[in-house]
Specification:
The complex is a heterodimer of chains A (71) and B (246).
Chain A (H helix, E strand, L loop, with lengths): L2 H25 L8 H5 L23 E5 L3
Chain B lengths: L2 E5 L2 H30 L12 H33 L6 H24 L12 H23 L8 H20 L2 E5 L2 E4 L3 H36 L7 H9 L1
Antiparallel strand pairs in B: 2-3
Helix pairs in contact in B: 1-2, 1-3, 2-3, 2-6, 3-4, 4-5, 5-6
Classes of the chains: A mainly alpha (71), B mainly alpha (246).
Chain lengths: 71, 246
């Protein structure tokens, strides 16, 4: 049964790393806004491509997107 | 502020969806054959590679790691790009993830009926395939974390945390459960003996269900359910409860 100490150590190390990452991300202010992110995922930002052959990109599955970079 | 133009990689998502459908049908057909063998136990008599003991791990591996595995990758590759507003970190890693995973499935479909097995449930594959799984899984994680680093969206949506937990935990479970000493090209013995091996095996088996079949799909539900309903269902407590019951 001594192998359980190995398993416990692994589990605790993984848990502590995740907890640290969580604390870090909250302290960085990522989660200060608790409302907007839940709405933002509902908006599609893909351009609708017209069925004009000249405007179709080579690969119809790769839709170009314009986004403003957040600084 | 500068205007940037980029495109999502939808090709890789499509490939994973077709692979999900394909392996889903194969895995379930093998399951049907196994079910029929309960009624007609002798239908595959005389063909060793169609015996129940060899087909059963083929069925579980095909359904869990091929069908569900490809579904996870399809959903993660689709939603990660949209949630992080970035194309996947590397198209090469995406392709390596796809073709590597399919190669692993094919090698499992060949070796298991031939009787090559570690006899650890849900981790039957022999050591060369175990190493391949670790490499391809790390390629997936590298691609995911790389995309997180180059993201255009400062906020990490809850689904991304679930994907990250899936990657880290499955890697840890697979690597520690599959530690084994090879004695030939397709035969190895576990480094753990007796009750130690049983303990590690079911630490893996139990948590693999949690982190391969549950966590990724909770993450996917946090993205796809509000998208499908086109409203904020994530604040709805019943859904949260259903999610944890699944």
């Amino acid at each position: 049964m001594s192998v359980i100490y190995v398993l416990l150590t692994i589990s605790i190390v993984v848990a502590v790393v995740f907890f640290a990452a969580f604390i870090f991300s909250v302290k960085s202010g990522q989660y200060d806004d608790s409302y907007t992110p839940s709405v933002r995922i509902l908006f599609e930002d893909e351009l609708v491509i017209q069925k004009d052959k000249k405007t179709l990109p080579n690969n119809k599955n790769e839709l170009p997107i314009s986004k403003r970079k957040q600084s | 502020m500068e205007v940037q133009q980029f495109s999502y990689d939808n090709q890789i998502v499509k490939k994973f969806i077709y692979a999900t459908l394909f392996w889903g049908i194969i895995g379930m057909l093998v399951g049907l054959l196994l079910a029929l063998m309960f009624l007609f136990p002798n239908i595959t008599d005389g063909i060793s590679w169609l015996s129940f003991g060899r087909l059963r791990p083929l069925h579980t591996n095909a359904v869990i790691f091929a069908f569900v595995g490809n579904a996870i990758f399809a959903g993660v590759y689709y939603s990660t790009q949209r949630l992080l507003k970035a194309r996947m970190f590397s198209d090469f890693l995406s392709k390596l993830n796809f073709w590597g995973w399919q190669a692993i499935i094919v090698s499992a479909a060949i070796t298991l009926p031939l009787g090559y097995t570690t006899s650890k449930e849900y981790a039957e594959l022999e050591w060369p395939i175990d190493i391949a799984i670790a490499v391809i899984w790390v390629a997936f994680g590298w691609n995911l974390i790389g995309t997180m680093i180059k993201r255009r969206q400062r906020h990490l949506y809850v689904a991304i945390w679930f994907y990250l937990a899936t990657f880290v935990t499955v890697a840890v479970l697979h690597i520690f459960n599959s530690l084994e000493l090879p004695i030939s090209a397709l035969k190895s013995y576990s480094v753990y003996a007796g009750v130690q091996d049983a303990l590690v095996q079911w630490w893996y088996g139990h948590n693999a269900v949690a982190f391969f079949l549950t966590t990724p799909f909770l993450g996917l539900m946090y993205y796809f359910v509000p998208k499908a309903a086109n409203r904020l269902t994530i604040y709805c407590t019943p859904l949260y409860r259903i999610g944890h019951k699944i």
